[in-house]
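Researcher: Next entry in the queue.
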Amino acid sequence: MVSPDNILIIDDELQIRRLLEITLSANGYKISGAATGKEGLSMAATSQPVLIILDLGLPDMDGLDVLEKLREWYLKPIIILSVRNSEVDIVKALDHGANDYLAKPFRTGELLARIRVAKRQGQGNAETPVLSFGSLTIDLPNHTARKNNELIKLTSTEFSLLALLAKNEGRVLTHHYILKEVWGMGYVEQTQYLRVFIAQLRKKIEDDPAKPKLFNTESGIGYRFGS
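Model: Structure for this entry, 227 residues:
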């Protein structure tokens, strides 16, 4: 018998922890909960969760500090669930290593979908040499992409951008992170530059560039590839 995946919830609101426990338990997950940052850090080390749901407004320490400490050693997905919903807060959390961000109040169906996507990320999509997304295939070792088995002509920069987004399917990547990874630290403020390249990829890959299904914009924050 396969043991259920353990999800750790770090949130000081008892009602939220109970709601999540009921919802996630009904979907086959084992739940553990912590009401403070220190307790959450301790439980993360001992219970070895497959995913952590983290609130930013904790009573003993800021959630970003908890996130930063977790990312010193915890490599699995972390989803932020918080009443803080400004672009600044979301970008900070993602740049500190969060895989995803949902604002309270939230829809349980959306949270479950985000958990499924984050778990796929945690299983090592980036290590797969060939990534497939419907009619699109991306051959990472050979730096080629095909749609409906036809080769797509991409510049080296376009391929690097496509590969970065595809390897992080479902994860919101901030403008700052993408620019740093693809172009380097000297370009981290060049968001307009990034928009131009995203538009080029949409034209070459999307069925309808005006209604993208792969290169999704997270307004003011960055981009999410796929769902």
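Model: The CA atoms of residues 51 and 62 lie 19 Å apart.
Researcher: Noted, moving on.
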